[in-house]
Design brief:
The complex is a heterodimer.
Chain A lengths: L1 E3 H5 L2 E2 L2 H16 L4 E4 L5 E2 L1 H7 L9 H7 E4 L3 H19 L3 H14 L2
Parallel strand pairs in A: 1-3, 2-4, 3-5
Helix pairs in contact in A: 2-3
Chain B lengths: L1 E4 L7 H13 L6 E5 L8 H16 L3 E5 L5 H9 L2 H4 L14 E4 L4 H13 L8 H21 L6 E8 L4 E8 L4 H9 L6 H9 L15 H12 L2 E13 L4 E20 L18
Helix pairs in contact in B: 5-6, 6-9, 7-8
The chains are: A alpha/beta, B alpha/beta.
Chain lengths: ~120, ~290
Amino acid sequence: MKVDVFKEVGENCITLEDGHKIYDMIHSELSSGNNVELDFENVKIFASPFFNSAIGRLLKDFKPEDLNRLLKITNITSTGMSVLRRVIENAKEYYSNPEMRKAVDDVLLEQSESL
Amino acid sequence: MLVLNVPTINDDLSDFDKLFELWNQANDDNMNVTFDFSRCGFMKQNAVAFLGGLARLITARSGNVIFNWDTMREDIRTNLGKSGFLNIFGHVSSVWTGNTIPYREDLTFNTTIVVNYLKSYWLGRGWVHVSPLLRDAIVGRVWEIYANAFEHSQSYVGIFSCGQHYPRQHNLALTVVDFGVGIPSNVRMFVRNQDVPANKALQWAFKRGTSTKPTGTSRGMGLDLLKDFVKINKGRLEIFSHEGYALITEAQEDFMNRDSFFEGTLVNITLQCDESYYRLSSEVVDEPIF
């Protein structure tokens, strides 16, 4: 399956809602073990909410090695790719470590108590 | 009738305190407020965005606002006319034609309009010589400020912003302000601890992966990406919320508490208008990304 992201959401890949749309399109394909190509040709602006909901949360249901095998990202700008890499890095940490958020919150609590 | 004397407003910390003091004086229902500019010799984009929002806040709380335009210096009035501020607040002025970046109010979040504003009016008016790739990168990062404001602020009067280009300093500034609940309030609610100091709450909001929206999806990142971008650019990012103050520069990352208090959130960002400050890395897409 090949998704023309520009055709689906336009030149700005920035909102959670647009990310949801892409996620809904590709999730079942990936679940079936089918290859998916996300083609970002003509997409110009990228922001983290889009990638969080479109791609980051795939890591909740799929292993990184499966996504590397099944999901191909093409024609993305260097800026878009750098945002995507950060989102993936964050999502991997988040989904592999359910205590991560709690840990962050605990640090905050400790800091507030120490004052 | 409360007369608020608007002083000269630059962008030092004390200038933001002056703005917050104006908010403090008018922070009540049914206020009848006149803005007097006799003591104002200069205003930057932070004051324009803030005063516009404050006026809307007062009227939304069943108050009345009068801008005493006659007390305003001619050069300030000219600039406010060019930014569209005068027209928006009912003062007849010439149509915007100049180099001033428009003042804007967003009651609802229209991403296309905001992106177009950043691209065409803030960055794209010929005063910033950047490549299209860099322009889009800047818009993407700065857009995160608006996204955060709309998603988290709960500002019932909307989001207010104004930009300014400073040719001599060769930089570009943007202020985005909301009159919502503030970042510390959201963080305290999220971690269920009302004792979290405002500066620690801001620090928490800048951490990777943190978000006060419990959606079950990895989130956050907006402020973190913005921070990295400002550092690379040798720019300056300031956030005021409650008594908390965050300052991000290439060399600094400070989170402190100040004496002045503002319940909403004000973000002030300054970027260098020079491509050489940026390092847009070339990415090899073929490498595994997960």
